[in-house]
């Protein structure tokens, strides 16, 4: 998946599937057996990125305190948005567009941020009136200002501003 993501990032939806197979160290037949169409591979790349984001919520929850878990996940979300923007042209080539694909991912992402925010509220780190969806919308807005090459660094700084503004008043 990582090789395919890199290829679609560099070359868009028309990246050579044979080159992807070669870079992944498999034969073209193996690639086509698992992903019979270009659309199937593009969709699999996107789903893998969403699954990584959802799994990160559980990993961060087990490893670090609530506020740190929320911040780490939000920073990962910035990276996810960057990947999504890079492969968006490829996703848009899917028959019927990417909307069905995005619908399925929305629930996983919403579930992850809900759990992280609720845990941070329960610990007293985050204000009780914070709606996880509001935070997600702010984060999407922060991440979608990709007008300059350094937008990701700006988005990362803005994550810290969002965290600071979300802290419980003591």
3D architecture notes:
- This protein is mainly α.
- It has a single domain, classed as Tetracycline Repressor, domain 2, CATH 1.10.357.
- 76% of the residues lie in helices and 0% in strands.
- The chain contains eight helices and no strands.
- It is elongated, with a radius of gyration of 18 Å.
- The N and C termini lie far apart (45 Å).
- The model has no long low-confidence stretch (mean pLDDT 85).
Average per-residue pLDDT, rounded, comes to 85
What share of residues are in beta strands? under 5%
Low-confidence stretches: none
CATH architecture: Orthogonal Bundle
List keywords for this structure.
mainly alpha, 76% helix, 170 residues, 8 helices, Tetracycline Repressor, domain 2
Write the layout of secondary structure elements.
Elements: H1 2-11, H2 17-24, H3 28-34, H4 38-63, H5 66-91, H6 99-123, H7 132-143, H8 151-166
Helix pairs in contact: 1-4, 4-5, 4-6, 5-6, 5-7, 5-8, 6-7, 7-8
Please outline what is shown here.
It contains 8 helices and no strands. The chain has 170 residues and is an all-alpha fold.
